[in-house]
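Propose amino acids for all 75 sites.
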C-alpha cells in the first residue's frame, strides 16, 4: 500500500519534473486530447505525450478557448 500511496501523492510532482527535465534536454512535449491523436503516434516520433483532459474539468475553459484557433491548421 505504501507504493500506491506514494504514486498517488506524487502523480503530478514527479511527472512535472520529468517534463521539465525532458525540455532541458531539448525533448519535445506534446499536449493532446486522446480523441484527436493516438499516443502511439507521438511516441513513435520520440516525443512525450501529455493528456490535456484526463477526465478532469480543470483548465477546460482555457483549452477550449485556445484549441479551436489551431484546428484550422490540421484540416
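Proposal:
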Amino acid at each position: 500500500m505504501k507504493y500506491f500511496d506514494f504514486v498517488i501523492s506524487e502523480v503530478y510532482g514527479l511527472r512535472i519534473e520529468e517534463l521539465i527535465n525532458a525540455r532541458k534536454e531539448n525533448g519535445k512535449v506534446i499536449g493532446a486530447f486522446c480523441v484527436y491523436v493516438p499516443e502511439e503516434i507521438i511516441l513513435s516520433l520520440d516525443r512525450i505525450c501529455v493528456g490535456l483532459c484526463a477526465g478532469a474539468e480543470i483548465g477546460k475553459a482555457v483549452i477550449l478557448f485556445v484549441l479551436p484557433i489551431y484546428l484550422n491548421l490540421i484540416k
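The chain has a mean pLDDT of 76. The radius of gyration is 15 Å.
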